[in-house]
Design goal:
The chain has 331 residues and is an alpha+beta fold. It is built from nine helices and four strands. InterPro entries: P-loop_NTPase.
Length: 331
């Protein structure tokens, strides 16, 4: 990931999802290489190699430090490979390694790469001592039990090296992390399935509560609408019975009009007590009250949206599938 004369550093990421933080600038300089190997779960691994970092006035077309730190936040493992050739320790690189180590010390793994090119055992020990001393000078990298295995890629045409090659340990570390990530994913899958089931239950319960509220709202609206129509009708009938009895008897019949007069007698006598000059004002007031009650009925009957039968059935089907099919796939 970082590269100088003395070091190369790689971040290992099982799955790297796109992020808004890696926008124009970074993506323009990304290249991808795909390997079809299935050895040692290689298909489950994504390696991200950072651009080289050197001291001096070299500038990059994007904020390389922030990009690398963000990648470190996403990675499951961060490999720091020290190249013995040149024996140079880039200050800019070490600053970034120190920042990564401060947040992700448990993910950081240090290796001496190309160890077979470091000369004899004494030369190799001297290189490692120099690297360790430089690292320990920094408080953020000075830790007990500092381990830096030696690794290299053997060549078929190269003579056998006496240098211990611990590259298999790197593979085991990656495989161990993959297993742990898979287990964490499975645990998360079970938790997510339960969460989805709870969310469906909550939505269905909330929908049922809203449905009950809508029924009450419709009942209130119907009640206000009924009284808004009944009250002016009764008052109008009593007004006609008290002021135009002959016309009412002719229109409704004598028997029905007499029955109405019995039940509406008190209201009819009330109309008779109102002066003739004010009767029209009272009539308009009654119509105004009726209009107001109809407006109240309209607002009181407002309902909230609820799930249709098809939508509710679909939600329950999702819940059933997640619980019985998806969740059951966890070994």
């Amino acid at each position: 990931m970082f590269e100088s004369r003395a070091m190369q550093h790689y971040i290992y990421i099982p799955i790297l999802s796109p992020s808004e933080k890696l926008k124009v600038g970074v993506t323009d300089y990304l290249t991808t290489e795909i390997s079809t190997s299935k050895q040692k779960r290689f298909s489950l691994v994504t390696f991200v190699d950072s651009p080289g970092l050197v001291d001096g006035d070299m500038k990059y077309p994007f904020d390389v430090n922030k990009s690398i730190l963000w990648l470190g936040d996403q990675a499951d493992l961060i490999f720091v490979f020290f190249d013995p050739i040149g024996q140079a320790l880039c200050k800019r690189t070490l600053n970034l390694v120190e920042q990564l180590n401060h947040k992700h010390a448990d993910r950081m793994k240090f290796y001496l790469s190309k160890a077979d090119e470091a000369g004899h055992e004494s030369d190799r020990q001297r290189v490692m001592m120099q690297i360790v001393q430089e690292l320990c000078k920094r408080p953020g990298l000075n830790r007990t039990g500092f381990d830096m295995p030696t690794i290299y890629i053997p060549s078929m045409n190269q003579k056998a090296s006496r240098c211990a090659n611990q590259i298999e340990d790197v593979c085991k570390e990656i495989e161990k992390t993959i297993n742990q990530t898979i287990q964490n994913t499975l645990n998360s899958l079970e938790k997510d399935c339960d969460q989805i089931a709870c969310m469906v239950d909550e939505k269905v319960q909330k929908d049922s509560a809203v449905y009950s509220q809508n029924i009450r709202a419709r009942f209130r609206g119907a009640a206000f609408g009924f009284f808004g129509m009944l009250l002016p009708f009764l008052l109008l009938m009593t007004y006609l019975l008290s002021t135009q009895p002959k016309s009412v008897k002719k229109m409704l019949g004598e028997k029905l009009s007499d029955t109405l007069l019995i039940y509406l007698g008190p209201l009819a006598r009330l109309w008779q007590s109102i002066p003739q000059d004010y009767s029209m004002y009272v009539l308009f007031a009654i119509l105004g009250v009726a209009f107001i009650m109809l407006i109240i009925a309209k607002f009181a009957s407002r309902t909230k949206p609820t799930f249709s039968r098809k939508q509710k059935k679909h939600l329950l089907e999702i819940q059933d599938y997640v619980q019985k099919v998806v969740k059951s796939k966890k070994p």
